[in-house]
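Structure tokens please, single chain.
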Amino acid sequence: MFSVDGDAAPLGALHAVCREHGAALLVDDAHGLGVLGEGGRGALHASGLSGAPDVVATVTLSKSLGSQGGAVLGPAAVIEHLVNAARTFIFDTGLAPAAAAAALAALRLLRREPERAARARAVAAGLHGRLTAAGLTAARPDAAVVSVHAPAPEQAVRWAADCRAEGLAVGCFRPPSVPDGISRLRLTARADLTERQVDEAVAAVLRTSPWS
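Here you go.
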């Protein structure tokens, strides 16, 4: 799941190419875990690749799970190799117990309430529909990221600042983070947003829009 436009990578096709050439597929599922797949099990589950012997996933605990740190998920041989040979793991500081406990609590909550994942996707689709209906250009979201195009880098920065002044925190992508010509705002949908809050968010984006 790409973090700028919120579009999903063609994992099935990528995996087929990897298998054809005897390669492994490494998937960064930072924006898929908790949102995609049944009950938010992630992009690999949604693509039918969960548990495949030649697929490794990296996940962050700091997005949908609301904690910090990350994890590598994959075949036992891969994990054993990383534990013994990955310098960035060996010489790093261990994950704080409180962060691990917070992530575990979030995972348990997601298992109890799997509808949260579908709700996050529905909120994203609603944001996209309302923004595009109002005339803005927004990438169709495959998960919870909604990307809205801005006219230019300077206007994207100002737009984000104006949104914040309206009480709406949004991301802002502009060069050098992205190539020139595709500056944008990034909104993140959450399962706990009410329809009124979504209406207020859309209204804030439209009131401050440099396109108007």
